[in-house]
Backbone:
């Protein structure tokens, strides 16, 4: 018998699980709709029968998705924008905050990684600032910056800086001394050494930090936008919840997942490019 | 000795011993190496061979003393002193060829890309690497191939002095034999000076003009300088037939087996200079083993 490759078997399993999951979801909701009226005592106790805002079946979500995705960029006023526009705002904020963080974190990480004095001097600050939930900065940011847009970007900045900073420092400090010695015996200057030896040597660790950061930034932007409102996918979810439009809520949750996955995949690709085997 | 091509003058290295004091790896070590010479240094593990080599390379500073090359004191690493590290030290993200061009481009900054590449390929060919192997990353090469790349990188830079730290330590005997011959091929016909650390007596006899013998540490000394009185070109299969071969080999084995320990750890007067005693064993001219009398503190 011809055996299918591992990937093919895995794909078949994934599709099967998806179909079963969707079927169970669909059927449980239509069953619920029929069941109302005659409740068992147990159902009464657990509250299963109480009127719900109406969790939609997947078919409804699919219809919604089709509608939204076939016209993602329409703009009909502040509370009615296409999903593409909302996601666009979120991505713009994430990338702006993220790149500002990278511009500071990577050079600073180099410094900390190369100089143990810099490491010791900065470490106490990093240790105190790092565990602060990024959203805790929001009130302060709003007060100081006086602008909700910039505050959201600041929150992204502050949450994505730490993994990049620490990973860069760790990667740079861990560059094998032999490789640095190769640079030294070839009389390379500090900059040449940093770019031709230290950077490629530390790149896998640095990119891992960047990948963690982008993941955190995408987690945080949803919460930040729920707070600051206006635009963005986080605001969209919250707005649809206020409208009790659960179909849109579920649809946008899925979109958040898909965009997060794509961002991660992009860094996965970069990670594969800079990887090397010792 | 003071006007040798490479002169090591009163080199002392001490390290903290971890208990608040210090221990001395070697003290006032002095010796010279002539231009174009191939010198091997033999000694037990931990006696300070790598320490000496790192000082010669300019990668570390001695506690005291100077190293002069061409009359100028060595300070810091230089392209004039090429190094082959024990663990190859190839940059793993670059292909074999790129690892060599990396060095050549640093050495000859005025060259065009094509010149750099042609020069690098030529040197890779000299050590027996060509074809698609040179476009592979070090992780896709065998240990022997990696060491060849590392040797090609060092020689392609045409440094005046080449420092090799146990370059064949991790290789099997067969590969080792081939690369030793390739090394001799690349070196002969140049006026490059080679200083090589090894643990292998036969390898040292095959390659060297002179073997420096170190006593055990701490307070190690470069105690003897044994001339290899076997004419070149040497083939590994032929040299064993030479009348001097076993005489020299026995002398080395005796030293490493017994005398390196007996001579070890002698505390000396503060300004006593430790120069190696020259040993010349030549059975072809005279049947008796001829050893020069002990030359000590008198020598400068
Ligand atoms: N940075 C250091 N700090 C303290 N002690 C050191 C340092 N480097 C080397 N040593 C000590 O100096 C001595 C000589 O070391 P070295 O590496 O030169 O030995 P070696 O002759 O090259 O040995 P092997 O043949 O095993 O490579 C050893 O006792 C070692 O422990
Ligand atoms: Mg060593």
Residues:
């Amino acid at each position: 018998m011809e055996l299918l490759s591992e990937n093919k078997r895995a794909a078949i399993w994934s599709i099967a699980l998806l179909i079963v999951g969707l079927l169970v979801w669909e059927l449980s909701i239509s069953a619920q709709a029929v069941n109302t009226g005659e409740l068992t005592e147990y159902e009464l106790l657990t509250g299963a029968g109480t009127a719900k805002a109406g969790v939609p079946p997947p078919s409804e979500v699919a219809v919604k998705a089709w509608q939204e995705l076939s016209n993602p960029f329409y703009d009909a006023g502040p509370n009615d924008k296409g999903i593409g526009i909302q996601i666009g705002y979120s991505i713009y904020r994430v990338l702006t905050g993220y790149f500002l963080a990278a511009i500071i974190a990577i050079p600073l990480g180099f410094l900390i990684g190369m100089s143990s004095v810099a490491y010791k001097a900065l470490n106490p600050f990093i240790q105190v600032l790092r565990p602060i939930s990024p959203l805790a900065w929001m009130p302060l940011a709003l007060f100081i910056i006086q602008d909700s847009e910039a505050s959201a970007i600041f929150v992204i900045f502050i949450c994505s800086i730490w993994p990049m900073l620490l990973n860069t420092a760790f990667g740079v400090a861990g560059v094998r001394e032999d490789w640095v010695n190769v640079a030294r015996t070839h009389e390379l200057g500090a900059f040449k050494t940093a770019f031709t030896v230290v950077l490629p040597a530390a790149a896998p660790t640095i990119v891992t930090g960047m990948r963690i950061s982008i993941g955190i930034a995408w987690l945080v932007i949803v919460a930040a936008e729920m707070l600051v409102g206006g635009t963005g996918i986080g605001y969209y979810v919250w707005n649809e919840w206020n409208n009790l439009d659960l179909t849109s809520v579920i649809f946008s949750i899925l979109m958040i997942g898909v965009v997060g996955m794509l961002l991660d995949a992009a860094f996965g690709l970069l990670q594969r490019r800079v990887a090397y085997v010792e | 000795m003071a006007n040798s091509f490479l002169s090591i003058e009163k080199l002392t290295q001490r390290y903290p011993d971890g208990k608040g004091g210090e221990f001395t790896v070697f003290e006032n070590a002095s010796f010279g190496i002539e231009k174009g010479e191939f010198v091997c240094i033999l000694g037990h593990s931990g006696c300070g061979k790598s320490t000496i080599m790192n000082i010669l390379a300019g990668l570390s500073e001695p506690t005291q003393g100077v190293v002069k090359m061409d009359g100028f004191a060595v300070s810091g690493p230089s392209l004039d002193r090429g190094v082959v590290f024990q663990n190859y030290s190839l940059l793993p993200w670059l292909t074999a060829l790129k690892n060599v061009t990396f060095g050549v481009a640093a050495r000859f900054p005025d060259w065009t890309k094509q010149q750099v590449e042609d020069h690098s390929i030529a040197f890779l060919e000299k050590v027996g690497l060509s074809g698609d192997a040179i476009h592979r990353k070090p992780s896709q090469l065998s240990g022997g191939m990696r060491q060849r790349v590392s040797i090609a990188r060092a020689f392609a830079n045409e440094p005046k002095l080449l420092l090799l730290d146990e370059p064949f330590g991790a290789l099997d005997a067969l590969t080792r034999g081939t690369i030793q011959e390739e090394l001799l091929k690349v070196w002969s016909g140049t006026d490059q000076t080679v200083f090589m650390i090894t643990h292998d007596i036969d390898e040292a006899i095959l390659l060297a003009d002179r073997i420096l013998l170190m006593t055990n540490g701490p307070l190690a000394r470069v105690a003897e300088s044994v001339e290899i009185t076997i004419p070149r070109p040497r083939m590994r299969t032929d040299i064993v037939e030479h009348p001097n071969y076993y005489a020299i080999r026995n002398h080395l084995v005796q030293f490493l087996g017994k005398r390196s320990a007996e001579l070890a750890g002698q505390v000396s007067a503060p300004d006593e200079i430790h120069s190696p005693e020259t040993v010349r064993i030549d059975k072809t001219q005279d049947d008796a083993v001829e050893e020069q009398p002990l030359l000590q503190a008198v020598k400068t």
In short: Chain A has a mean pLDDT of 90. Residues B 15, 25, 43, 45-51, 217 surround adenosine-5'-triphosphate (ligand 1) (CB under 6 Å). Chain A touches chain B at residues 178-179, 181-182, 184-188, 196-197, 200-201, 203, 274, 276-278 (CB under 8 Å). Residues 77-274 of chain A form a domain with the MetI-like fold fold (CATH 1.10.3720.10).
